Amino acid sequence: MRRGDLARALAMAMGVGLAGGAAAQPAELVVYAAGSLRAALTEVGRRYEALPEVGKVRFVFGASGLLKDRLVAGEEADLFASANMQHPQALADAGKAGAVQRFARNRLCLLARPEARVTTDNLLGRLLDPAVRVGTSTPKADPSGDYTWEMFRKLAARGGPYAGAYETLDRKALQLTGGPGSPPPPTGRSVYGALLEGGQADVFVTYCTNALQARQEVPGLQLHDLPDDVNVAADYGVVRLGASGARAQRFLDLLLGAEGQAILRRQGFAEP
Question: What is the pLDDT of residue 4?
């Protein structure tokens, strides 16, 4: 064999070897997920990465509606875990995802600064007080905002002194999170705890799981359950996307199985 032919053969052999080595490494699993799932799914992700031959998982957290729009626009992921059922169903209807599976539930709570003087008996009145600044997420972009506006409607349906509640709250609510122009959450912190601690609002309507995490960071904050007749249940749905394969199914099996469900329970989510 001539020297040039030998060099080419060696180069081809090295290329095949390198390609084979790269192919042997599991590709990164990409999961788009609602921001309220950050703590729970980060722990699920650690359990997933400990499984044999699955590789790493990368999470992209954000408002579910905005993530759905990014996926519709062509961004690629293996799984999408949403804080509602409608956004993943829209991807399924568009042929971009498989069947939607409900995997957790949440509900709304009121997180309050002590200066807001909120009690179990007066919390609805304090929400409507013109002097109390009410923080919310952003409807349409974030299901938390959609659930909050549904709560406003249910409060108005009580009638009597609450008949004008929807108009009052729709007008005064401060959409501080979850929108396309919302500032990113501070690294390693609850955005709700940071906003209330920084004085941008007096109270915040958010998921009970978010409120629990915020109070762990800022112990002075108060957490109040909203009355059952005005509260709103949040169903969380997950789908496999595109041509995601066996690794995505292994993550999904972990999430839906006993271990993943126990992690969700510890973070305050209810059974699906």
Answer: 46
Measure the CA–CA gap between 234 and 245, rounded to whole angstroms: 28
Closest CA to 81 of 95, 68, 70: 68
Identify whether the C-beta of residue 142 lies closer than 8 Å to the C-beta of residue 36: no
On whether the CB atoms of residues 189 and 39 are closer than 8 A, the answer is no
Q: What mean pLDDT is reported for the chain?
A: 91
Report, as ranges of residue numbers, the positions in the chain whose pLDDT lies below 50: 1-23
Cβ–Cβ under 8 Å, residues 209 and 195:
no
Between CA 97 and CA 35 the distance in angstroms is: 20
Residues in Cβ contact with 240 at an 8 Å cutoff, skipping those fewer than 6 apart:
78, 79, 97, 98, 248, 249, 252
Predicted model pTM: 0.88
Please tell me the predicted confidence (pLDDT) of residue 188.
Answer: 83
pLDDT tens-digit profile of 145-191?
Answer: 999 999 999 999 999 999 999 999 999 999 999 999 998 888 888 99
Determine contact, residues 207/108, Cβ cutoff 8 Å.
yes
pLDDT at residue 25 in the model? 57
